[in-house]
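How it folds
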Amino acid sequence: MLAKETTVLQGEPLPWTPIIAHPELYHREIMDAAMADAFGVRVSSILWERIGVGGQVLPHYHDVVEVIHITVGKVKLLCNGEWISYKAGDTFHVPAQTIHSVANDDSQPTEQISIFLPADANVPSNSFFQTYLVDATVYGHPTATEAKPNV
């Protein structure tokens, strides 16, 4: 059965768990595969990661696509065999089976959101989602609106 209610995972109580194989790398798991299954979506994991000063996600690859969005600080990315500097707001799309690494390139800890997505040639084409507005006054919001697609 798919989840039918909005759930909230508050960030503060989530522990920063060290990933021992990588120096100064910590993560908070936002969504694991079991949660994704409960929501009926295809996601291997979504991590909120912190890389301490001098820390690094060591060079590696995996069998999934990874999307990395830098939220705090400056990092160096091992990208196509070359180290390149990036900053908060930049996003990396790393194909499955591609060697990559992210290193802190700042004087403070950096943070990023890493989304791990299954890679499969047989996945149906994606499409942008539909949004429908509802009467907000029913939910205590002061404005009323009509339902409209594609907002």
